[in-house]
């Protein structure tokens, strides 16, 4: 249970952020993981990290494996990183290093990969970080059930947008926090913390132990620094607000590059243009059946 003497834990929904501590993790997940398991307890001390890299860089499980006696399955597709990972844990029978390009089904699915290891069906921690298909891979995990799941999301997508990238391992876009929040509920999980680009979930039966009254994405994730907003003006001008950089390409987003209507053609359609009204009236008059007669009358009057 949460510390009842800690007033922050009773007031703030995002109180777990107070326990951020970085050993090897990117955003302080090490400390948050430690706090979560101090509340819910450990069962078998098994963890999985997909996107393990070299086993150290930005790892959410290095501390568990090396300092807390956990066992694990570490999956890395890149052969160079995998060799470093393998060397790091050489001779440790409780740690399985797998060089695999994971897919959603078949021989390369997470379910199938896990079946070749000693990991229990219900293990303690899952960490997914592969820069894109986390949503679909988590969805595809059916036969195994982690008690805690750390899932990467795309922080540039606002909290009110339910975006899921295509189910294609060759596409790297990322999905929104809201989409993962809803997926979590479908799979029986509740969001307890958002740190950096990672959403941390626990099984719904464990959620009451955290005393979080509102675990919506808007409540637990308030960092909008990566948001790029676009709005339009009456005359057709598009305006950018917020982050003006392509975050993963380090290129500036220029307002002039996204305009649909050229500057010379921008106007407010509802405003009356006197010249257009006059031209329209003239065209209407010219189409009248009596117009030729009126033209003759005008010529007779002025020229005799």
TrEMBL record:
It comes from the Bacteria. One of its GO terms (cellular component) is cytoplasm. InterPro entries: EGF_Rcpt_Signaling_Reg (IPR053202), SAM-dependent_MTases_sf (IPR029063). It comes from Candidatus Yonathbacteria bacterium RIFCSPLOWO2_01_FULL_43_27. This is Methyltransferase FkbM domain-containing protein. SUPFAM superfamilies: S-adenosyl-L-methionine-dependent methyltransferases. One of its GO terms (biological process) is endosomal transport. The lineage of its organism: Bacteria, Candidatus Yonathiibacteriota.
